[in-house]
Each structure stands twice: as structure tokens, then as C-alpha cells.
Amino acid sequence: MDYPLTHRQFYEGLKAGELLGLKCQSCGTYTVPPKITCAECGHTELEIARLNGMGKIRTFTVIRVAPEGFNAPYIVALAELDEGPWLMGNVEGLDVDDNVDGLIGRKVRVDHKVIPPLNYSAGEGVAVTFQLV
Amino acid sequence: MRKVAIAGVGMTKFGRSDKSGVELFAGAAMEAITSSNIKTREVQALFLGNVLGDFEEGQLNIAPLCANELGLPVDVPATRVEGACASAGVAIREAFIWVASGYYDIVLAGGVERATAMDTPLATRTFAMSSESRYEVFTGVTFPGVFGMVARLYADKYGLSLQTLKEQMAMVAVKNHKHGAKNPLAQFQKEISLETVLKSPMVADPLQLFDCCPFTDGAAAIVVASADIIGKLTDKPVYILGVGQGSNGSLGRQKDITRIKAREAAAGQAYKMAGLRPSDIDLVELHDCFTIAEIVASEGMGFFEFGTGGKAVEKGETAIGGRLPINPSGGLKAKGHPIGATGAAQAYEIVKQLRGECGERQVDGARIGMSDTLGGDLATVVDIIYGV
Ligand SMILES: [Zn+2]
């Protein structure tokens, strides 16, 4: 069966400034990032959709001990998009040594950054980023 | 389905070891086999949890090597099981199913890990390989980072100040170190103070070093047998009354990560099979890879209302001597967390507790115990109920 939207196509969308996802023709739920079935009901009739790229931070952490290939400190967060899905990304444009306690609930715009190939990463990657608005 | 029991158990000292993975497992397995009053050639299958043998020792396909080391016959299938930190829990559930089905009578299950063979950056990277590699790993998320996000969301959702939650989390560490101090096989056998936890370096906000379990080498094993023959193996059988396993996707797909749905599913299956409720459980070994992880696990398994697990710790309900002792072994926090072996080490502790062999850390009168092992980004959870 053909993939409705692959992770490479999702990345290419982000690089072109578009947040792509899938809208279920059965239940209307948005599935972001994409997968082969609807994240809510499991249906396979999915249509590529453009999301508005806006959301709010639901939770976050400041990574102080980083994995090989990353330089701490940096913020990792989960944001809830306006259309419903939650995405993981890095909060950018904020000094992590400032008080970050008020971050939950802040409105953000989804952007991206390209991550050069890591060991064991099957090539270049793209991380979602969140810009505070 | 046939009734299934545990005959013998074995476990190495947890901590830093210069033994190989094969040697660690064989030591634990031989203890389990010998104490089951059987010969190695009577074992009919091996399920072995191991997560990172390739990165630790350059060793893939460790299961048949362990089988051969033990002297198991060549017609014994030996299978490595990988479910991240839940690997040995998965292995025990597999052993249970094969025996319950009647296919085998005697199966060896367990796990092994040599995490300290990796330096911290490589260990942090390889542990994070259980995160979603397409959509989440590129953010640099770490395993402590996942539970840092659980903690921040928990405080926000239940309207707790972060300070209050952090103190409750620190009390989990203090309690588990207090328990671990009474466990001769624990990695850390030393009590700590609240201050030690709250002054330790930040790892992944709001988790500090003493909120986190250590990197650990170690192995544990159990002999699982049909209840029909258990009388020949031991006069102190411990029965597996219920098992459950749940699965979930990436963290983003799970949304509210204070509620670990794979755990709620696994615990639900185990209670249903056993015909028991949370109030029937006398002691628990659960997955306290981080202090907040113990709090959410104690809620997800049904012991406390959601949002009140920290309060229960504060009141001493989960300490030995409390209403429901949690992690009398010291848990992952103090006993140590050799990730591929942890589920089997939990089974080891519960079997010893139900047999009344735990000395200073004995939970008096315990008859029913429950284990809970979590793997990956809240993606695999195995819960098992044991009874005598
Ligand atoms: Zn749907």
C-alpha cells in the first residue's frame, strides 16, 4: 500500500516552511507527524493537509546532560497544535538560564532546524523547533 | 491454560562489574537452576532480555551464547528479547505463556546488561535510541528528559507547585535508598537525605542527579515451570497469577504523558487474569527509573488516585512498614537498573519476599506481590502478579 505521506516528505515540507499532516476522511482527526493509519481511529483514508503551524507548550525540560552528538543545555518541549496533535521540538530563542517556569501555556509557531547526520541516524534529520510568539 | 509457577531465582550483585554479559547471566541463571533442583539439560527454552549488548560489548545474539555457556542442549531455542528497559519483563511473560500453553514444562527467563561499559555520552545516546528515531530523537531528547517532561506536566495538571512536587520526588529517592541499604545485592547500600537529592546537579529539569537511577551492570534469572511438576522442583513455589503487556507509540502521539496508557492496559490485564484488585496487593516492585516515574506508576497501577501518588510517599504509605511497600529492594534507584535485567530482578525480589527470605527488608506477611517494568518512551509496559 502506498504511504500517504512519508517522514521524508514531512521533512521536506518543514524545510519549505509548511507543516504537513494527514486528515482522516472518516473521523476528521489530524495525524501529525504522519503515519500509515489515522492516529485516532485507524482508518487508512487520509488526505494530506496543511496545518496552521501554531500551538502552545504543554510541557518541557531543559536537557543538561546531552547524548553524544548534542550540546547541552537546550530545551525539549511537547506542544499541542491548534488542530489537536502534540509535537516534540526544541524551544528556540530563549536563554535556558533565565527563569523558564512560565513556559507552559506559551503560544508558539512551529519551525524547524536541519540536523546533520549523527552516528546511527540513517542520514540527515530535521528537528521541529518552537518559536515563542 | 495451565497454572504456572516460579521454582528458583538468581541474581548477581548489581553495580559495576568486569564480568562479561555472558558470565553475568550464566552466574544468575545457574543460581536459579540449582535452586530449582534441576539439571541444565532439563531447561526447554530460554528467553533473555538484553538491550544494548552490541554497543556495550560488540555482542549481538547473546542468547544462544548464554545457553551454550550454561550447557543447555542444542535443541533448546534461546531467544533475545528487546523491549528497552522492559526487556526482562517481556521475557518472563513469554516464558509464562509458553508454559501456560502446555508447549514447555520448564523455561528459563531473565536478562543481562553491562551499561557501565559505555561512557555517559554514548550511554545517554543509546538509551535515547528507544525514542522515536524519525520525529523525536533529533531534538536531543534524553531518557531523563522524557520524565522531566512528565514531572512538569504533572505539576501543571494537578496544580502542584514544582517545589512541592520536587520534595515529594526527593522523598521517593530517600525511601528507596533506605530500602536499598538493607539489600546486599544493591548498587547503592547507603541512605541519603532530602538535601542530598535537592542539591544534586540538574540532569534534565526538574530532575536532578539523585532523581535518576544509575547505569548498572548485572543479571537476574528465574526458572518458570508448570504447576503440575512444581512439587519436584521446590517446596516453596511462587505462582504467576496474572500477566499483562501494553504498547504505545511516540511520546507526541501519547499526549498526556502523566497517564501511561500502556501501563494502565498491562495492569488491567494482569488484575483481570488474577481475579484481583489493587487493594489485594501486599507489595510492589515498580519501575522507578526516575523519582517521578514511581509516583505516576503507583497511580497507573491503581494504588492511589491520579495526582495523589506523591502525597502517599509523603505520608510514608509506600515505605516498608507502610500500607503498601513499594520497591522494598531499593528499586531501580538504589538497587540499580541493568536495563535488560530489571524485570527479572523485580521477580527475584518478589519471590524472595513472598518466601519470607528478605531479612531486614522483609515485608511482613506478604502473600501477593506485583511487578511493573516500563520500556522506552512509555511504550512497553509489563505488569505481573505473583502469589503464594
Ligand atoms: Zn480517523
TrEMBL record, chain A:
Pfam families in alphabetical order: OB_ChsH2_C, zf-ChsH2
Domain ChsH2 rubredoxin-like zinc ribbon: 12-47
Domain spans labelled ChsH2 C-terminal OB-fold: 51-110
InterPro entries referenced in this protein's UniProt entry, alphabetically: ChsH2_C, ChsH2_Znr, NA-bd_OB-fold, Thioester_dehydratase-like
Highest taxon listed in the record's lineage: Bacteria
The protein's name in its UniProt record: Nucleic acid-binding protein
Taxonomy of the source species: Bacteria, Bacillati, Bacillota, Clostridia, Eubacteriales
Automatic annotation (TrEMBL), chain B:
Pfam families xrefs: Thiolase_C_1 (PF22691), Thiolase_N (PF00108)
Protein name, UniProt field: Propanoyl-CoA acyltransferase
Taxonomic source organism: Desulfotomaculum copahuensis
InterPro entries assigned to the protein according to its UniProt record, in alphabetical order: Thiolase (IPR002155), Thiolase-like (IPR016039), Thiolase_C_2 (IPR055140), Thiolase_N (IPR020616)
Domain Thiolase N-terminal, residue spans: 4-227
Gene Ontology molecular function: any one: acyltransferase activity, transferring groups other than amino-acyl groups
Keywords: Acyltransferase, Transferase
Domain Thiolase C-terminal: 249-387
